[in-house]
Amino acid sequence: MRRTHAAALLLLLVAGCATVPSGAPRGEADPAAFSLARPGETLASWLPYRLMRLKKMTEYVLVDYGGTTVMKAIADASASGLRHAVSVDLKSMPWLQWRWKVPQIIEAANNTVHQVEDVPARVIVTFEGGRDQLPPEEQINYDMALAMTGNTLPYATLMYIYESRLPEGTIITHHMTSRVKMVAAGGGRDLGVWHSERRNVLADYRRAFGEDPPRVASIGIMSDSDNTGTSITAYYGDIRFAAN
To answer: In the chain, what are the domain boundaries?
Structure first.
């Protein structure tokens, strides 16, 4: 399989992890809050996604943490996530806010080397957009995914990753496609405590892709340790968009 064609599968299974199937209803401005759920409850609007059929899945469970319900991720040489449909115009709601807690980093991981791309915590934003706006090689990927699955790929994806080696805000282009950009966030801070993040997604998108963004289509979270074969945990608080 040619490299660009293999990227179609990668986009569908990794960047497209938060893709909403064709015909699915558009989401609200914010995903359902973890804090409003009960520990052990399943939130129907947060849908699981599997990267590959035979790949072990990360476990996600709502737990009580100091009186607040949060999402706990347990990755044991595994990779999968949760996704939630949203519909957001970043020109009026550019800020994305969330909390996360990472007890330990993955020492062997390096997100600039594809063989060891593992991250204890990711917040993933996917965007609407048309095929004709894509470069020719990405149009091939788009067509292949549609033919193979009946679903379209996200036009673009930003992944905010808990990255400890690179300066805050560093952008990493995925090794198999220009339509996935990883943004280093939060990794240079103390481990094992809650950190509140606030990113201007409008500005990050413009830096990453050199254009104004379309509407946000979905939000996802993912903790993965499959490439390094390690075991890690992470915690996610509520995720929301804000005007300022």
So the answer is: 26-130+154-242
